[in-house]
């Protein structure tokens, strides 16, 4: 039983370290070949949005909206991928 409790404690420490690393990691999502970029942290917080002036057309707001959504989706996918890399090994569970 002591071994099991020690394993649980070690996994909890590893999980907390992985979560802290994710929070400190900067991730980028982009669309339109980099014309729209969204920067965030590994815990899902969006910290910056960069829009190239070339895509700002008052006559075509829909394209800009699509690019922003695409960049946000890319950021979300990149964040999920990083979380899987960092947390995946910890999700294996404990031996019972």
Features:
three-stranded antiparallel beta sheet; 96 residues; alpha+beta; single chain; Ybab, Chain: A; 3 strands
Rounded to the nearest angstrom, the distance between the terminal CA atoms is 11 Å
Order of helices and strands: HEEEH
Output the structural class: alpha+beta
- Please name the CATH topology: Ybab, Chain: A
Question: What's the helical proportion of residues?
Answer: 40-55%
Mean pLDDT: 88
Radius of gyration: 19 Å
Query: Globular, elongated, flat, extended or rod-shaped: what is the shape?
Result: rod-shaped
Q: What's the CATH architecture name?
A: 2-Layer Sandwich
Overall CATH class = Alpha Beta
Q: How many strand segments?
A: 3
Spatial order of the strands forming the largest sheet? 1-2-3
User: Which runs of at least 5 residues are low in confidence (pLDDT < 50)?
Assistant: none
Number of domains: 1
- How many helical stretches? 2
Coiled coil: 1-28
Protein name: Nucleoid-associated protein Tpau_4009
Function: Binds to DNA and alters its conformation. May be involved in regulation of gene expression, nucleoid organization and DNA protection.
GO molecular function: DNA binding
């Amino acid at each position: 039983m002591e071994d099991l409790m020690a394993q649980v404690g070690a996994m909890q420490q590893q999980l907390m370290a992985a979560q802290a690393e994710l929070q400190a990691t900067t991730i980028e999502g982009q669309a339109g070949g980099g014309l729209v970029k969204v920067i965030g942290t590994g815990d899902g917080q969006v910290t910056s949005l960069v829009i190239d002036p070339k895509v700002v057309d008052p006559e075509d707001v829909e394209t800009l909206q699509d690019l922003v959504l695409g960049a946000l989706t890319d950021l979300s996918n990149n964040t999920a991928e990083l979380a899987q890399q960092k947390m995946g090994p910890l999700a294996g569970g404990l031996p019972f």
